[in-house]
Amino acid sequence: MKAIIPLAGKGTRLRPHTHVTPKPLIRVAGRPVMSYILDDLAELGVDEIVFVVGYLREAIESYVADAYPNITAHYVVQEVQDGTAGAVSLAEPFVDEDVLILFVDTLFDADLGLVRDVAETTGGIIWAKEVEDYQRYGVILTDDEGHMVRIIEKPSEPISKLANIGLYYIKDWQLLFEGIHHTLQASPGASGEFYLTDAFQYMVDHGSKIQVAPVAGWYDCGKPETLLETNRHLLLRGRSGIADSATLEDSTVNDPVRVEEGAVVRNSVLGPNVTVEAGARVENSTVADTILGSGSTVIDSTLQGSLVGSESRVTAYRGRLSIGDHSEVDGEE
């Protein structure tokens, strides 16, 4: 089995952090977002991946080579952002067997092991999460046996609450690419893009049985507020703790909190939901629902719901911040 990971987007919702760091390498709970997905694939035994790259591609390629040297990595460049169908189509020359397709906007609690026992008559699996705010998502209609019938984007009526989360296994890979070609030859959607879900519809219309499987959790990493929610989830799931080499003096910690190697916290209150990355310093401050990048400094401040880039300095500030690497904010008049 191989995997396709499209990650050519510019991550505009996470600016300014994505001006110099591609969205898949934005850190949450002390690790790049994409590392959680790559670890899941390694556990499943997938060691050949097609990365669809574009914006800041060199950073992606360097990270994969350094952190995952055992992966056989192929890179294809999506020059034009023409949608998910266009992105996956670029991987076709490398696909000659069943394939997983994963997007790195989200993390998930999903049983990928389902792919090992998929029925002979099943052409693929789409994972979905039941949601209440179904109007925000593409939702999946199923038949009585739990197979996909249709995916409807942002319905106004509650015809389904099964949200498509962007995680797919395709056994009928030849029919998938046939459907992608068909989709790319048609008119684009309202946004000017071609959607992978239209290729799935083509598969279903041509007899493929695509199973809809539930996920226990689905965590968005695509914008600051949801990235912080995902940080909380990961801290609660085992990523919290104080490194042995960190220094905490005259400070209060309200879990969950992660303080990494070499960080210094003095006369401060941390948490809940705070990651202090390696070498960061916090003094005379209160910090909650915040990620502080490596080597950053926060002094005489109160931060809530903030993302502070690496090597940044914040002094005497009260409120919410979202600043990129090597920034300075001084709240003093």
Question: Could you please describe the fold and organization of this structure?
Answer:
With 333 residues, the chain is of the alpha/beta class. The chain folds into two domains: 2-220, Spore Coat Polysaccharide Biosynthesis Protein SpsA, Chain A (Alpha-Beta Complex); 240-330, UDP N-Acetylglucosamine Acyltransferase, domain 1 (3 Solenoid). The chain has helices at residues 33-44, 57-67, 84-89, 173-185, 196-205, 224-239, and strands at residues 2-6, 27-28, 31-32, 48-53, 72-77, 99-102, 106-109, 124-130, 138-142, 148-153, 162-170, 210-214, 217-220, 241-242, 247-249, 252-253, 257-259, 264-266, 269-270, 274-276, 281-283, 286-292, 297-299, 302-308, 313-315, 318-319, 322-323, 328-330. Strands 14, 16, 17, 19, 20, 22, 24, 26 and 27 form a nine-stranded parallel beta sheet that branches. The protein has a seven-stranded mixed beta sheet with strand order 5-4-1-6-11-8-12.
Strand residues, percent: 25-35%
> What is the quaternary state of this protein?
single chain
What average pLDDT do the residues reach? Answer: 91
Q: Assign an overall shape.
A: elongated
